[in-house]
Amino acid sequence: METKATLWKSLADTKAVLRGTLETLEMEESTLASEQKARSKVDQEVLALRGWVLGTEEANTRLHEQVTQQEEGLSILENTRLDMYLFHF
């Protein structure tokens, strides 16, 4: 009889431990889900920033090309003015 009571108590203790473990696992699962959502948001922000950086780099490249063309045009203009000046004298 004492053995049966001991077994029932052991079973009840095991159930209590398992319930506690299940609650802990559910909290950890919830925490992991929250962390995954946060990581997903950060990943989206990183992708947006990468797109912004690439757009900025493309704009910078276009501006650099425009400046180069303007420099070439200015050089041609200066050479033309120099030739006209020398031609007058």
Overview of this structure, please?
The chain is mainly alpha-helical and 89 residues long. It is built from 1 helix and no strands. The protein has one helix at 2-88. The protein starts with a helix and ends with a helix.
Produce a short descriptive summary.
With 89 residues, this protein is an all-alpha fold. It contains 1 helix and no strands. It has one helix at 2-88.
Largest sheet: none
Helical content class: over 70%
Cα Rg: 38 Å
Structural class: mainly alpha
Strand content: under 5%
Span between N and C termini? 130 Å
Q: Could you tell me the mean pLDDT?
A: 91
Oligomeric form: single chain
Tertiary shape:
rod-shaped
The total count of strands amounts to: 0
Low-pLDDT regions = none
Order of SSEs, N→C? H
Number of continuous helical runs: 1
Which terms summarize this structure?
89 residues, 1 helix, rod-shaped
SSE order and pairing:
Elements: H1 2-88
